[in-house]
């Protein structure tokens, strides 16, 4: 199993979905072995794609407010891991963003989660994240 730094470098250099991403690949992830909170979302939005900062949009503001933590703690990788199901912006659809390509999670997810041994709380948001992390309990929230 590769160490976390090497794995994160590989993820950030990934181009597996380049042919399917309208804005091109720009994997966004935050993780550290000591993180105790894991936040799992769907995939970065366009603003996150442009800035390279996870949850750097109104949804991130709302999430931090719900969690009761500020940006300093949220963006401290030693405390909070931000690991979406898809690491790149998948594009926009008629009603929101395109779902993350399955190959991203299939390629990276288990390897990355295995490198986060101290996670004590996982916040799972979105249908694709629920299906992966809670397969026996998955129900639609709409």
Note down, in words, how this protein is organized:
This protein is an alpha/beta fold. The chain has one domain (4-133): Uracil-DNA Glycosylase, subunit E (3-Layer(aba) Sandwich). 35% of the residues lie in helices and 11% in strands. It has helices spanning 4-12, 46-51, 58-67, 71-74, 102-114, 127-133, and strands spanning 37-40, 80-82, 92-93, 96-97, 121-124. A three-stranded parallel beta sheet has the order 2-1-5. It has a two-stranded antiparallel sheet with strand order 3-4. Strand 3 (92-93) and strand 4 form a beta hairpin. The model has no long low-confidence stretch (mean pLDDT 90).
Question: What keywords describe this structure?
Answer:
3-stranded parallel β-sheet, 5 strands, 142 residues, alpha/beta, two-stranded antiparallel ribbon, Uracil-DNA Glycosylase, subunit E, single chain
The end-to-end distance, rounded to whole angstroms, is: 38 Å
Tell me the strand percentage band. Answer: 5-15%
Pick out the low-confidence regions: none
CATH class: Alpha Beta
Layout of strands and helices, then pairs:
Layout: H1 4-12, E1 37-40, H2 46-51, H3 58-67, H4 71-74, E2 80-82, E3 92-93, E4 96-97, H5 102-114, E5 121-124, H6 127-133
Parallel strand pairs: 1-2, 1-5
Antiparallel strand pairs: 3-4
Concise synopsis of the structure shown:
The protein is of the alpha/beta class and 142 residues long. The protein has a single domain (4-133), classed as Uracil-DNA Glycosylase, subunit E (3-Layer(aba) Sandwich), CATH 3.40.470. It contains six helices and five strands.
